Amino acid sequence: MNPMIMDHPLIQHKISLLRDKNTGSKEFRELISEIAMLMCYEATRDLPLKEVEIETPVAMAKTKVISGRKMAFVPILRAGLGMVEGMLALVPAAKVGHIGLYRDPETFEPHEYYCKLPMDIVSREVYVLDPMLATGGSAVDAIQMLKDKGVKHIKFLCVIAAPEGLKALTEAHPDVQVYCANLDEKLNEHKYIVPGLGDAGDRIFGTK
Ligand code: URA
């Protein structure tokens, strides 16, 4: 499945502010949340609708409501947490699971240290969240963990992707629709996205 690049002007503008090294944690968190909300709006564009009849104060009306599978948001810890609030602002009924993966500083391989998911995750439409798609290792593994549990309908949302990560993810999981707001140039020797925005987790939580 081809990745969808969400280049809405509001998203692009907010990403420029995110990238600025002088943007502090409070503003960074607010921006990530706003971008996630805008991305959620786009990524839910294909949700099925069903017709219902509602009585307005004036007359009966045939209108539409969302039907089909319920949603779950699964941030990859820790940077993915920054996207949850914005997603929930648009879909407050969604359940939230968490997958914790860390990158081995030498091999850059992801290792699982935490996984807590809604009981009925298998029947939900699952949106995996991670603002930075760098090597793609964490996203590939997190999605594989969900598939191993029987989850069938998965979307992946990231703010910035490196071509290397996008390639790895779409090759490993061609059935997963990937949404990204910006495709950057490359990874550097430390596997940071260039130009990127630095370490998203550190910038969200002020740990640097
Ligand atoms: N994770 C980040 O937070 N930033 C990068 O550039 C790469 C991975």
Helix tally equals: 6
Task: Provide the helix percentage.
Answer: 25-40%
From the helix content, strand content and strand pairing, which structural class follows? alpha/beta
Fraction in beta strands: 25-35%
Whole-number mean pLDDT: 95
| Overall number of strands | 13
How far apart lie the N and C ends? Answer: 37 Å
The main β sheet shows up as: 9 strands, mixed
**Stretches with pLDDT under 50, minimum 5 residues:** none
SSE order in H/E notation? EHHEEEHEEEEEHEHEEEH
The coarse overall form would be: globular
In angstroms, what is the radius of gyration? 18 Å
Question: Which small compounds were modeled alongside the protein?
Answer: uracil
Topology, element by element:
Layout lengths: L3 E2 L3 H11 L5 H19 L5 E7 L4 E7 L4 E7 L3 H10 L4 E2 L1 E6 L6 E7 L8 E5 L2 E2 L3 H12 L4 E9 L1 H10 L4 E7 L2 E2 L5 E2 L5 H6 L3
Parallel strand pairs: 1-11, 4-5, 4-6, 4-8, 8-10, 9-10, 10-11
Antiparallel strand pairs: 2-3, 6-7, 12-13
Helix pairs in contact: 1-2, 2-3
This protein binds uracil.
Uracil binds next to helix 6.
Catalytic activity: UMP + diphosphate = 5-phospho-alpha-D-ribose 1-diphosphate + uracil
Cofactor: Mg(2+)
InterPro entries: PRTase-like, PRTase_dom, Upp_B, UPRT, UPRTase/APRTase
